[in-house]
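Researcher: Here's a chain I'd like modeled. Treat it as a single chain, no partners, no ligands.
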Amino acid sequence: DQERVEQMVTGVVRRLEAMGETEIDAKAIGELVMEGLAGLDDVAYVRYASVYKDFREARDFGEFIGELEEQEGEGGA
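Model: Modeled as a single isolated chain. Structure tokens:
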């Protein structure tokens, strides 16, 4: 829901502010957003990852989802 999304965004912003840098690499921001989405919504996480990681083929989705399932099996993501 909207409140959970806002909390995730606030958490990302706080982590960025805690870095204390005036410039932050886009990769670092992307990784923080992916981490936030992973805990929020699996579908949003995969959709964001598909753009962020530049998926080109259906196989890319399959591999990513396979990794996600392995992490969930290990108690991650």
